[in-house]
Design a protein that fits this description.
The chain has 10 helices and 13 strands. By secondary structure, it is of the alpha/beta class. The protein has 2 domains: 2-122 and 192-256, Alpha/Beta hydrolase fold, catalytic domain (Rossmann fold); 127-180, no CATH class. The strands form 3 sheets. An 8-stranded mixed sheet has the order 1-2-4-3-5-6-12-13, with helices on both faces. The chain has a 3-stranded antiparallel sheet with strand order 8-10-9.
Length: 259
C-alpha cells in the first residue's frame, strides 16, 4: 500500500508491502522507485515486511533542494521514525540505494541490524562513463508518453515503466527530473571506503559478475576488508536484480534467514 510522509515541505512517498514480519527497508537505485522491490516483497512475505520509499526526486516523491548523501540518509531516518521503528531494521540498497544504505549504517548504527549491498561500489567515478549522457537534454515532460520514450533513446526500457501522467492530465512526465539525477550522480563521486568499513552489523554483498559499476575485484575487497560480510555473485551485469530476479531474491532470503 502506498503512503506519504511530510518532511519539511516535501512529500516522501513509500510503499509498505505489509505483513507481520520483521521490517526490511529497501532503497532502490537511481532513476528507479520503490515498486522495483514488489517481487522481493512477495518472496519474503510472511517473514519480512518490506518498506520501499521512492527516494527524494524519484517516483511519487517530491524533488529536493539537494541530493547529497546526508539528505538521502536523513529521509531514511525520518521514515523509520515515522513508522515507529525504534529498533534496528535490516536495510537493503541497490546501486544508489546501496550507497545510501552504507552511509545509513555508518552514521546511525543503532538503526541498522543488517546491511545488504546490491551491486553498489565504494569507489564511484561517474566521469569515467558516458552512460548517463542521455540525461543531458532529456525532457522532463512531454505532451505524450511516446515522446518521452523516444527522447530516452537507448534508456527507453529503463524509464518507460515509471512514466506518469501530469496532475492536470495535459501530458506526461519522467519518474525523475534529469537534472536531479545528474546532481545525484555527481554527489556519489568519490571514495566511500571509510563509510563501508564504519559499520559492524552483518552484511551481504550481491554482485553481478560482469558489472561495470562494481567490478568483482572491488566487491572481493569489500568482503575481505569488512568483518562479518558475506558474498553472493550472480551471473550478469549491474542490472542483475532484474535480469535474474530469482537469483537475487534467493540470495536476499538466504542471508536474512541467518539473522
Amino acid at each position: 500500500m502506498r503512503h506519504e510522509l511530510k518532511i519539511d515541505d516535501r512529500t516522501l512517498s513509500y510503499l509498505d508491502f505489509g505483513g507481520a514480519g520483521r521490517p526490511l527497508l529497501a532503497l532502490h537505485g537511481g532513476m528507479s522507485e520503490g515498486l522495483a522491490f514488489a517481487g522481493l516483497a512477495e518472496t519474503l512475505r510472511g517473514e519480512w515486511r518490506v518498506i520501499a520509499p521512492d527516494q527524494r526526486g524519484h517516483g511519487d516523491s517530491d524533488r529536493a533542494p539537494d541530493y547529497r548523501r546526508e539528505g538521502y540518509v536523513a529521509d531514511a531516518v525520518a521514515l523509520l521514525d515515522h513508522l515507529g521503528q525504534g529498533a534496528p531494521a535490516a536495510v537493503l540498497g541497490y546501486s544508489l540505494g546501496g550507497l545510501n544504505a552504507c552511509y545509513l549504517a555508518a552514521t546511525h548504527p543503532d538503526r541498522v541490524s543488517a546491511l545488504i549491498d546490491v551491486d553498489a561500489t565504494v569507489e564511484v567515478h561517474p566521469a569515467e562513463s558516458n552512460w548517463f549522457d542521455f540525461l543531458r537534454g532529456l525532457p522532463y515532460t512531454a505532451p505524450t508518453r511516446e515522446e518521452l520514450i523516444a527522447a530516452a533513446g537507448a534508456a527507453a526500457d529503463l524509464v518507460a515503466p515509471g512514466l506518469r501522467p501530469l496532475v492536470d492530465g495535459k501530458g506526461w512526465r519522467m519518474p525523475f527530473h534529469p537534472q536531479d539525477m545528474l546532481d545525484s550522480i555527481e554527489q556519489c563521486r568519490g571514495d566511500h571506503w571509510a563509510a563501508w568499513l564504519a559499520s559492524t552489523c552483518p552484511a551481504l554483498v550481491i554482485n553481478g559478475t560482469h558489472s561495470a559499476a562494481l567490478p568483482s575485484a572491488t566487491a572481493s575487497a569489500m568482503v575481505t576488508r569488512r568483518p562479518g560480510t558475506s558474498y553472493t555473485p550472480l551471473e550478469g551485469d549491474h542490472f542483475v536484480p532484474f535480469t535474474d530476479p530469482d537469483g537475487f531474491h534467493k540470495a536476499v532470503a538466504t542471508f536474512l534467514s541467518t539473522l
